[in-house]
Design a protein that fits this description.
The protein has about 170 residues and is an alpha/beta fold. The protein has one domain: P-loop containing nucleotide triphosphate hydrolases (Rossmann fold, 3-Layer(aba) Sandwich). It is about 25% helix and about 25% strand. The protein has a seven-stranded mixed β-sheet with strand order 1-7-6-2-5-4-3. Helix 1 crosses helix 2. The longest helix has 12 residues, at about 10-20. The structure holds adenosine-5'-triphosphate (ATP) and magnesium ion (MG). Magnesium ion binds next to helix 2. The site of magnesium ion has 5 residues, from helix 2.
């Protein structure tokens, strides 16, 4: 098992990482995208879809309600899938995801870890999380580096835009 770790500081950097990462993804692939709401899973897909000439970043939007978005490129068909609203195996069945798994396809699945089968079938797992960017500058835990009177320093260090992105290939 190999894990690579990246830090991004903006949505643009995450899109750029997605473009780079796309070079390592050749179909067929099943990619699990893990992370909390707003972690940046869909943002990463924007870069992947661009690199495959399958869609522009603006055209890639969250499949929260539609559940599956298809982006066709010359080398691969990408399926961006959001299982946040899918709870039962029966609901999952109705999506017919098995029909999407072909030699030519890359499935990019958000919230797929809700179902054991995707944990088993995944080729790549990408975990995104917000990080407090102070972590990069100090090694001690946050509580130890916030003595009273250091509010200014702390405020300067806080950013909403920093993400840690771990890519694991089993
Ligand atoms: N470094 C970053 N990487 C990715 N997104 C970032 C970053 N910094 C800020 N953002 C913002 O965070 C939000 C990420 O939203 P996105 O839809 O990609 O999350 P998501 O993980 O797909 O969430 P959901 O589970 O709700 O679908 C966007 O508004 C994006 O602009
Ligand atoms: Mg999303």
């Amino acid at each position: 098992m190999a894990t690579q770790e990246f830090i991004t500081h903006s949505a643009e950097e995450t899109i750029a990482l997605g473009r780079t990462l796309a070079g390592t993804l050749s179909p067929p692939k099943l990619v699990l995208l893990r992370g909390d709401l707003g972690a940046g899973k869909t943002t990463l897909v924007k870069g992947i879809a661009e690199a495959f000439d399958a869609a522009s970043a603006e055209d890639v939007t969250s499949p929260t309600f539609t559940l599956v978005h298809e982006y066709r490129g010359p080398q691969a068909n990408l399926y961006h899938i959001d299982l946040y609203r899918i709870d039962t195996p029966r609901q999952l069945e109705t999506l017919g995801l098995d029909d999407l798994i072909t030699n030519n396809s890359i499935l990019l699945i958000e919230w797929g870890e809700k179902f054991a089968r995707f944990e088993r079938e995944r080729d790549v797992e990408i975990a995104l999380e917000r990080v407090d960017d102070r972590e990069q500058r100090f090694s001690e835990p946050v509580s130890q580096r916030a003595p009273e009177g250091s509010a200014e320093l702390i405020e300067e260090g806080i950013s909403e835009n920093v993400r840690r992105i771990r890519i694991t290939t089993p």
